[in-house]
Design goal:
The chain is of the alpha+beta class. The protein has one domain (11-88): 2-Layer Sandwich (Nucleotidyltransferase, domain 5), CATH 3.30.420. Helix content is 30%, strand content 34%. It contains two helices and four strands; from the N terminus they run βββαβα. A four-stranded mixed sheet has the order 3-2-1-4, sandwiched between helices. The two termini are 27 Å apart. The model has no long low-confidence stretch (mean pLDDT 76).
Length: 89
């Protein structure tokens, strides 16, 4: 019988707060306690920049995208908790 061993490298956790013209991005990088936070505009160049940033880490990426609806906006930091819970599952 063959044993299957699945190993997962640590993932870059990404939370994106979606808005009409700009999006707030929060990254949790493996091996660091600090988070990287920045804003991207709703333009192709900025999406390409985000993709390049994520590819530079060379890790698996786990992402949560939050979109505010009416007055039920979820802070981007809360999205990171969702990511951590999913990463442990």
């Amino acid at each position: 019988m063959t044993d299957t061993i699945i190993t997962q490298s640590e993932a870059v956790l990404v939370a994106i707060d979606i808005a009409k013209s700009r999006h707030e991005v929060l990254l949790q990088i493996p091996g660091t306690k600090r988070r990287r936070r920045f804003t991207i505009l709703n333009k192709l160049d900025d999406f390409n920049r985000l993709i390049a940033i994520l590819m530079d880490y060379g890790c698996t990426v786990r992402m949560a995208v939050i979109r505010a609806s009416r007055n039920n906006q979820l802070p981007i930091e809360a999205a990171q908790l969702l990511l951590v819970a999913r990463a442990r599952a």
